[in-house]
Each structure stands twice: as structure tokens, then as C-alpha cells.
Amino acid sequence: MDFQYEYQETLHKLSLTQLNANQFKVVIGEREFEFSAIQQTDGAWILTINNQRIMATIASDGDVRYVHVNGNTVTLTAIDERKQRRKQSATAGDLTAQMPGQVVEVLVADGDAVTSGQTLVILEAMKMEIRVTAPTDGTIQGIFVAQGDIVQRGQRLVEVATA
Amino acid sequence: MLKKCLIANRGEIAVRIIRACRELGMHSVAVYSTADANALYTQLADEAVLIGDPAPSQSYLNGDKLIQVALETGCDCVHPGYGFLSESDEFAQAVIDANLIWVGPSPSAIQTMGIKTEARALMESAGVPIVPGFQTDHADDDEWLKQAGHIGYPIMVKASGGGGGKGIRVVESADALLESIQSAQREAQQAFGDSRIFLERYIEHGRHIEIQILADTQGNTVHLFERECSTQRRHQKIIEESPSPLLTDEVRQQMGASAVQAGEAVNYVNAGTVEFIATPDGEYFFLEMNTRLQVEHPVTEMVTGLDLVKLQFQIASGQPLPFTQADLSQRGHAIECRLYAEDPHNQFLPAIGKIHQFIVPSGSGIRVDSGIQSGDDITIHYDPMIAKLIVHDHDRESAIQRMITALRDTVILGTTTNLDFLLSLIDNPTFRKGEVHTRFVDENLDVLLPDNIELDELALIVSALQDLQGQSKPTTAHGTSDGDVYSPWNRADNFRIQ
């Protein structure tokens, strides 16, 4: 079975087949090899590759895979190539939250004309205040949050159409 | 002995205090905001009471409510932990007025040491060395400039009304002085409601070394040696250790004696910490005193073999200290790393999210103090500390190696943490040589920030294993399944036994 994972903007592919109870074959890059793997509890694996035992722990959240192995932790995203997935990415005119927090105040309304540097939204988290300002002169083309909303990092706040 | 304690705090320190209560045969009452309803500490306490909304002002800072709960649940004492109301002399007094025992020093000691300028003046008269400086309630611009000139640049402008990194400015030369003073005054007014500031000589390459003291109600005060906390970023501690790699036995004894003097000057009772700034030449100066238990207290516990929280309860019960200064000694070396849900690559801003898996390292000489368990959410409401990882070994080299192994064995999956940053710090040559000063991290961030890890192909293989197994069985209505790929109960077809 084929799998694809993205790690920091690079796509990695591999193919994994189960041979019997604890034996697997993997094709990755130019290489192909067999190994054994046992799952201890959900997410806790012990692999044996060339007589070396390796412990790994994995947790999944939707498409995201958090893996701890060999003393390092990495975050991968499973890419399903069967479905056409459009990554919901913010466009240049979108202003996003730089940190998770709460919206203290939205200072503009849809359609308002704004100038470069004007404060549009005030966010607050752990007693720190961040002012989200207009990067250029323009018009507000969309407000996606309201006072009191809790926002994640990268969440869209406001869209500014440049003049 | 005290019988039932209200813990006026949350998270890992609440867990810590509950453990001490259990060992002493005391009952514990936890309080929680709606955000902490499933927190570990509420599960460990004997009783848990909801006190309000997540915002601290509605919950953990609501002194009246905390006292009300203490009385309603029949507590005889209140332990404030650290942060929140632990250094509020008003809350301490209110607890005492309600006929409850305050596990800490007197309200007047808290008040005196809380105003930094008063503390400095008191220390000076007690013969404790203070940082050369200048303080006054009334000064005009000329006076500030003149006095700053006497002290010499660079100069630190600091707030009198509180600490925590607020209202602090470093001034390199006279032309920046007045503007910095005004800026610091505004920040101090905002943070403490008190715009008073004072000046202190800025000690270059200073080392933050603090002394733990303990005092009983019978006038006995001892010190439990030092903790060095110079690995800081923007005045926030990251790594602490004991013994300090800088101190000689002679300076250690002098500082210990100064710390005891400081405590005696305010008739201190219970646990406290006297903070000093030390120079590489063995000079040291009083900075401030923290009139509470500190985050990094486990470091002292590991090298002295004592349980500070149990001793706090024993002192609060009126018992004398069960040892004299001569009975105490440091053994081996201990290091603590603070693990936070923050993103070092995004200005160390907090990283909220769900902790899907949290597995702590264990073994000889490894201790983890945490209030977090797998499945918990890190929220925006409170400090995003996940855990304190503490190691102890017979010398510093071994302790560093033990910490590296413990950090690599720590499994924390689900949110961004400073784990790799801690590894980078502890393995850094300057840290290994024991030469880190308080500005080291801020000045060398580019070198210290860990590079993005090269992807280990094992991570891909494990993800594929997990997903392969996930594909071969149907999910149940609850979305769970057992781990056996070949279990007949996991087959999607209609099997029959013939």
C-alpha cells in the first residue's frame, strides 16, 4: 500500500506491505527491506530492523501524525492523493493571527477604507497584546472574527484589498 | 499537625502540594476554574470545588472566594503555591483574619520584601550587600542624571512595586536615561499601579544565584544552599541547577550567611528565596527576596534530600526545624529544565493545542513534576508550562548527560514545545563549561535555536504502519478499535464459522 507524507513542505513517499502477523516489507527511496513490528498499545510500536530494536510513539489527529522516534519528535501530514485536496491557505491580502489568543476588539467594519499601519484588530493572550495592522492602504474586504472569539495561530482575521 | 489544606493554586504546583499533604496524612481541597475541570490535580485532591470562569480574576485571584471555600470545606490552612496570590500580603492577612493558617511568612514580611526599594533599604541596614544604586520618592530630571552618573553606565531602571521583568530598562548612556525612566514608569504604573522606579548598576555578565532559606516559628533560620538560574530568556528562567558551577565554598558560605541575615531582618518564617546577582570575580549583591515557594524548588530537594513542601506544613503547624545548619549539605548535582508549550521558532509564543500523548522519562535520578496528562488541552488562559524535568547525579557532567537522555526519552505529541531548544541549551559548550550568564541566551539566540530536524525515515515507516493498520479495520461507532490486525472482530466482511 502506498503512503505519502509531507514534512516541512517536502513530500515523501513510501510503500508498505504486511507479509504476515508481525512482518512487513517497505519500499522507500531506492531501497526495499523487510522488518518486524509489534504494536504494544495504541500508538506505541516496537520495530526490529536488522536486529536493532527501535521504540516509537505516534499520535494522529485528522491528517496530522506526531511521531517520536530515536529521541526526536516530528510532525507529518498524511497526503491522500485520491482526493483532490485544496489546502486552505491564506492569500496575500489576508491578515492572520500570529499567535493563539482571544479577539479583544475589532476596530474596523467591512468596506472601511484603511491606511497603512492602521490597527484593525487587537488580540490578547496571556497578558500580551498584539495589534494587527494594515500592511498597505486599502479597503476591508472581509472580517472573519468578532470580539470575544478564540483564534488559532494562522487563523484568518481580516482581508484587506489593496487600493 | 495541620489536617486539611486548601490549595489556592492549580497545575503542577497543586499536584506537588497534594502529594505532600497525602504523605503527611493531611486532606487536600483543590479549587478549579471551568478550564481546569478535568485537570490532573483536581483528580488527585480529596475534594475539588469549582470556583469560577477561566480568567484568573474570576477564579485563582478571587481571594474572597478561595477563603470561603476553605471555610466551607473545613480546611485549617491555605497553601498559596507560587504566582497568583502567593505574594499578596492582603490575601495572606485575609486568610489569617479568617482563622486559617497561612502556609508562608507573615503579611508584613511579604509586604516589605514586595516593595523592592524598601527591601533594598532594609538589606543595606542589615549589612547585606546590595547592588550600588539610587532610590528616592522625589527626583527631578537633573537629580536622576546626576545619580546615574555616580553609579556609572550601563544602568538598570527598575520598578519599585514589583518584578517579573516589568518596568525594567537597561540604559547604555546618559542621553537615553530620561526617556527610559519615563517608559519604565508607564509600564510600572500599568503592571503594579505604582510608577515609582529606582536605579541600579547594571552588572555585566551577571550570574543569577539564589539561596533557599527556611525559618521556623521559634526563631531558627537556616539556608539550604544555592540554585543557579542564569539560563534565562528575557528574565524568564529556563534551566536551574545546584550547586552553582561558579561558587567556591567560601563564597557559598558567605552568601548563605547573607541570605539568613536577610530573612532574620524581616523575622521571616517558612520557605523563602533570597536572589543575588554574582560576578565571575566572586562579588555578589542582593537583588530581591521571593517570599514563597519557588518553581525550581525540586533542584534544592534533590541535592539536600529534603522535602520542602512537607517542611512548609511542619513549620506552619508550629514545629521546630528538625535540623541545624551543621546537619545540612549538598550531595551530587541537580539540574531542572522547564518544558513549555511554546514555539521557539515563532518568538517563543505560546502554542495551544491538545496533548495527545505525554510519556515522561523515568529511572534512577529522574524526577518529573507535571500537572499535565495525555489528552489535556493547553489553553490560552494560563502559563503554558507542561512539566519540570529534574535530574540528579553524582557530578555536573553526569547530570547533564542524564538530562540529555531524559529529554530525548520524553514523548510529547500534539503541540509545539521547547524540547529541542532545551536539548540545544543543555548541550551548548558554554553551558557545559558552566559559564552561562543572564544575558547569554538573549545574545546568542541565533546559535541556540535548534535547526529543523532532518526527517528520520523511521518516522515515515511508523506513520505508514499506523495508517496501514487503521485501514484494515472498520472504526466502531465510537471510532476506537483494538490493536490486533487479525482479530476476527476487526474484519469488515460477514465471516461465518463453518
Report on this model:
The complex is a heterodimer of chains A (163) and B (498). Chain A has strands spanning 2-7, 10-20, 23-28, 31-41, 44-49, 52-61, 64-69, 72-78, 94-96, 101-106, 113-114, 119-125, 128-133, 138-143, 150-151, 156-162. Chain A is mainly β and 163 residues long. Chain A starts with a strand and ends with a strand. In chain B, strand 2, helix 2 (40-44) and strand 3 form a beta-alpha-beta unit. In chain B, helix 12 (396-409) packs antiparallel against helix 13. The longest helix of chain B has 19 residues, at 174-192. Chain B starts with a strand and ends in a 27-residue tail after the last helix. At the A-B interface, strand 1, strand 2, strand 3, strand 4 and strand 6 of A face strand 17, strand 23 and helix 17 of B.
Summary tags:
heterodimer; A: 163 residues; mainly beta; eight-stranded antiparallel beta barrel; four-stranded antiparallel beta sheet; elongated; B: 498 residues; alpha+beta; eight-stranded antiparallel beta sheet; five-stranded parallel beta sheet; 23 strands; globular
